[in-house]
Structures
1.
Amino acid sequence: MSSANKRVTRLDSNYVREYDAYVERQNKRKKRLYRRLTLFAIVAVSVFAYLITFHLNQRELYKEKVSEYEQLNEELDKLEVKEKNLQQEIDLLNDTDYILQIARKDYFLSKDGEIIFNVPDDESSY
């Protein structure tokens, strides 16, 4: 027998047509299933990628905010020290003895009968 003689004739019966229709429906179901799974995978990967990018952006923003917070805290500490110094100066300026001392030192004012001698602070200039 040759390969040309091995042909099988297909029966044209109701059962064969129903079976062919069944196989075709199964193949279509498989195609639809694969399409749905592919679409779901694409959506899942897209959502996952978006969440990862969002998370990384939030981490970067958090680092920037922490850095800014630390910088502002340092500035606040400096301003609090400056405020404390200024408050001390205000308290001193309310004291008349301190004002008289400044007037004598900076403006060479004296009481009646006082003589003011200007002595350099640095003795190494001799």
2.
Amino acid sequence: MSIEREWDSIRPDHSFRAVDAGMGILRITLLFGSAAVALALIATPLLDSQTRSQSVGDSWAGGLDMTSTGSIGHRNTYTLRRSVLQPLPSSICVIRNDGSRHGDC
């Protein structure tokens, strides 16, 4: 029996442990996760530049943003009113700051 004890002291235990399997899965997950993040960081600017070059080349857009905005001076204030009681849902009543009314009031 002393030979078996000596053999056990020389040869380490190579049994399967669940902790080692869990660490292996964690390492694989971290490897693929970091690869996905790196790919996303590299691919995003490339795909963005391709879509911008395609949209600039379109004849209907002309590379311009077609959004328009406007503003009103502080003296020209008015109120827009819409009501469910008006004959049409698209009816709008414009009330100026002097009390005059225009539209479907």
3.
Amino acid sequence: MEIFNEIAPLKAFLKAKKQALNSIGLVPTMGALHSGHISLIEASKAENDLTVCSIFVNPAQFNNPNDLQRYPRTLDKDTLLLKKVECDAIFCPDSTEMYRHQPLIKFDFGHLDKIMEGKFRPGHFSGVALVVSKLFNIVEPHHAYFGQKDWQQYSIIRQLVDDLNFNLILHSVPTSREPDGLAMSSRNLRLNESQRQKAIVFFEALTFAKRALNDGAPLVQVQQKVMQLVEKDAEIKLEYFELADSKNLNLLENVKGASQPIMCIAGFVGEIRLIDNMFL
């Protein structure tokens, strides 16, 4: 496994390999890797001759400086894990390598980044689009892999690829969950034992809502019940629960009118923000 901290050596390595390869897969991450990330690596390895995993805590996508400072960083552990699953290359630059100058470019994705995560984290998706564009240009992958847990992010990157004609295929890999249903997330590392037990309420709320909506319950009624379920513990705060069309992220008032509706939820356990989703 090759490890690169700088762009130029990585590009030279990939250029030398490309003549003998049919395809390169890219798995962009911010590190603190877990089984969900490994499922992305495995999906890439199954479909490509070479897999690159990037590890970069991207400051451009954090609208909360404290969140950026406290985001888990476990590079040594991540490296050992990627070596174990036989990832071919790691790209782990620092901020000065990725942003040699303060970037001025901003992305606007219309309604896609004004709702849900975009509403509560202004500027977040512009930062995501910027770093993903950089990674696509650096690695020039044939395939790129993202987790379903961040469905709004995936939808925005899908729009980015389409609008800017990136020559690659995007893949969304199903969310990996703990045995009790909690969606795997790097932020879970920040939960204490009590908070970890409480955090499953978001999965429980989605499970309830799926059953209720499929049984014909009005969305407003389901949203009210979800809030009651989530906020029965004073340490937990619901930020949003929405029903959207997974193809275009248009918010829905009921399950009709969309071929594949998705429920999206976000909230806080203490000061730790978690998100999850579930297709109907």
4.
Amino acid sequence: MTLPTSSTSSILRQYEIIAGISNRMLAEARADNWDAVVALGEQYQDAVESLRAIAALSDEDREARRDLLTKILDDDAKIRMLATPELGRLSMLLGNMKRQQSVLHAYSSNAV
């Protein structure tokens, strides 16, 4: 069964929107602009969630969807590679803050 063109094009259009957002996320990650990556991540989630309301694709359009999904997943993998050092740095900072709080707590407890 073939879907009406408007339904099919809206599905592929939504995948194109998602691919565009993931491409912008990758550009922001490369620019070390993590606040923008997070903000775009919210748009990305909303766009993916909207796919649930759209009907299935025809066989011909599955090929186009596969190409878009490959691009989206490739961008995601690159973003994760760029984020890994930043996540490590944040983890180290949080660990240092926790140790400092423990030291402050220990000394403030003894001072009472």
